[in-house]
Amino acid sequence: MAEMEVDGDTLPTQQSGSSNASVNPSPTIDSAKKLDEGKKNEKRKQKSETSEAWAHFNRDPDDHDYSICKHCSRRLHCPSKNGTSSMRNHAARCTKNPHNIDKKQKLLMFQNQSSVQESGETVSTFVPWKFDQTKCRYLCARMIIIDELPFKTIEHEGFRDLVNMLQPQFQIPSRTTITNDCLEIYKSEAEKLKKYFAKNRQRVSLTTDLWTSRQNLSYMCLTTHFIDKDWTIHKRIINFCPVSGHSGEIIGKYVEKNLLDWGIDKVFTVTVDNASSNDLCIRYLKRRLNAWKHNVLDSQHLHMRCCAHILSLVVKEGLKDIDTSIARIRSAVKYVRSSPARLQRFKGCVEKMKIESKSLVCLDVETRWNSTYLMLESAIKFQDAFDLLEEQDSKYRSELLSLKRLPKEEDWEHVRCMLPFLKGFYTSTLRISGSLYVTSNNYFHEVFGIGAIIKKR
Description:
Layout: E1 2-6, E2 9-13, H1 27-48, E3 57-59, E4 66-69, E5 75-77, H2 85-93, E6 107-110, E7 115-116, E8 122-123, E9 126-129, H3 133-146, H4 157-166, H5 175-200, E10 204-212, E11 218-227, E12 233-243, H6 248-262, E13 267-272, H7 276-292, E14 303-305, H8 307-319, H9 323-336, H10 340-352, H11 369-380, H12 383-392, H13 394-402, H14 409-432, H15 443-456
Parallel strand pairs: 10-13, 13-14
Antiparallel strand pairs: 1-2, 3-4, 4-5, 6-9, 7-8, 10-11, 11-12
């Protein structure tokens, strides 16, 4: 080793003859090299993330060789040595990327709402249109629901021919698929309504009704009525289900279960028919609502009796006096409507008697007096045609005589005298039965109006 003097200090130097000898670097030099490499990697990372593709991606915190799409959350493998090509390609075709623009050529159609210029002229504008399979399936399911069509309508040959002509691109779903679509629409709308009730927390009024089908099965329908923040009245059917019986406690338990399922605990009134079982139902509901502590005046005014049902009971009691006359006219109408041949013979009698009417006789439902009124109103116009049918059609006369149901002159007279009274009840029932406007304030006026008509007669 040789010595070299630098500013008064003596330092050892390597001899020229020992140039091939190895010298171990110190630990300080190794740390410095690692620090320099870390800084270079950091700069390289920052440089790699300056690509435009990173505007749509986030680096995976668990593995830096992967990135996650901000729009659809898809995970892509994108090491720094491979660049960002895969990320850019995915961002360009990501269906949830709002920056993507559909470059395919679109059709033009007239806008539904035309624009009005300052000169007063109405000008229809064009808007781009693109076929959407998902939306078309939704509209098909909506058609089935709104028009109350059977699910098999979607598989009818005529419907498929029409759709194929209108839009060949539409893949018509099967009956099973459209059934599932209708169920999904129901679930979606039910969830929206539940969120609405949970958010607004307003009081609702309930109406419920029960009836028995021809298969001897009992069904219950529960409807809510409420007013939104814009003071608009709404009506929503929240359940239609079979019930195990008509007893008051059973009805009350079903109503309570539906209220719990929908998250409704603020009930203002419950409107039911004037049946004794409904009185027990209201007592049960009063106890439950008082326990929920969201009632008004301890539910003293919870029970509301159906006005339309009260009028119906009054009319049915009054019709007992002419039950025989109504039964005879109903039998005559039923005979005429029982076959196309009989109806054609009756039309011939109408033409011979020169009765001018665009409609013919209609059958009624015996349990609904409204339909009985409509049947009598239509039949009274064709009294002369029924008399002529009795003379020309021996089968009509013999069949009704065997049943003791052949209408007589006094039967027509009874009905003719009763119709003005029934018309007043019928009109009032229609007004009170409205569901798109408030009706409780009209009950007093309608009842006293009917009383005035009766006094005049």
